[in-house]
Amino acid sequence: MVLVSLVITFLIVVPPLSNYFMMQNIFAGTLTEASLTIGDSRASTSTTHTFEFTTAATGTIASIDFEYCTASVGTCTGPTGLTLSTSVGSVSGIGAGTANVSSNTVTYSVTSPQSISSGTAISIPFQSVTNPSTNDTSFFINITTKDGTSATIDTAQVAAAVLTDTSITVTASIGPTFTFTVDPVDPSLDGSGIGLVSGQVNGTTLDVTTTANTIPFGTLTDEDPNTAAHDITVETNSVNGYQVTVKFIDGGTGAPLADGSNNIDNFTGTNASPASWSTGAPNGSSANVNTGFFGYTTEDFTLGTGTTNRFDSNMWAGFSTSPEELIYNASAPAGGQESKRVGWRAEVNELQPAGNYTGTVILVATPTY
What we know:
By secondary structure, this protein is mainly beta. It is about 0% helix and about 45% strand. The chain folds into 2 domains: about 5-15 and about 180-365, no CATH class; about 20-175, Immunoglobulins (Immunoglobulin-like). The protein is built from no helices and 29 strands.
C-alpha cells in the first residue's frame, strides 16, 4: 500500500463579486448580444480578450474602437496595469484587418471595408492582452464601429472583472447585474439543499471537506478514491442565460496534478463522453501512467451541448486545458438565481509514487444578455 499526500489549490473564487453594468447612451445604433470573454482570470496575466456582438445598423465598417475604462460613465481612464495588444486572432463576420493601440484604446481597422448588414454577428479576439493589475476590480469597454469618415455607426458597452492573481475571471455582457459564488461543502454539516442528496455529489458519498478555494484530498491510499464538492451559485437576469466552464492549468507535465516529474493523470472519461468511475479506476502498471486519476462531475443534467444529461447516473470526466461545459442555462434562472453542485475525485493505485501533488483548476462564468 502506498500513501500519497495530496493537496490541490483551486483557483476558483474569493468573496462573491457583483458587477453592476450600466447601459450606455444610444447613438446611431446599439450593438446587441455584445460580450467580452476573457481566457484567463488572473490579474496581470497575458490572455485573450474576445469581443462578440451583433450589428444594429447597416453600414460600411472601416474600423472598430475598443476603449477600456475603469468606470461605465464619466471620464474614461484606462485600468492600471492593462497592456493592450495588436495581435489579432481569427475574426468572423467582418473582413481581415490590423490592430493599433493608442493609450487605453485598441482599434481594429478593416483592410478592405465592405457594407455589413444589420444583424451580422461579429467576433474579434485580441491575443496577448495583459489583464489589469488591481485585484477584485471591474472594467468597462466602449465598443464603437465607424465608417471610412470616422463617423459612428453602432456603439455598445461591455464589462468584465479580474479577481486576484489566483482567482476566477467573471465575464459579462451588457446587463444590470451578475454574481458568481463558489461555496465549500462539509459532508458532516451539509444542509444547503443544493446537492441532490445531502452529503453526496451525483450519487457518490463525500469524504473530503473543501474550503472556498482549496480541496485538501489528504492522504490517498491504494484504490480508495477521495471525493469532494463545491456548490456553485449564479445570480443574474441575463435573458439568454449563462455558462460555467472548467479547465486545468498545465504546469508542464500534461497532467492536472504533479509533484516534480511525477504526475496524476486526468480521469479517462471526457466532458463529451463521461464514464463511471468504477469502469475507469487507475489500473496502470507503470508509475505515472494511469496509476492515478483526477476528475470531476456535475449535477447539471441539462447542459447546452452534446448529450445534455451525459453526467447523470454518476458519470465523471477528466480535465482539459481548454474550457469545457460544467453548468448551463439557456435563459435567466427562475427567481434570478440558480445553484448546482459539482464534484472532484482522486484515486491512485499501489504504483503511484509518493509525494505532495498540486494543481490548478480554473472556473469561468459567462452570462449572455
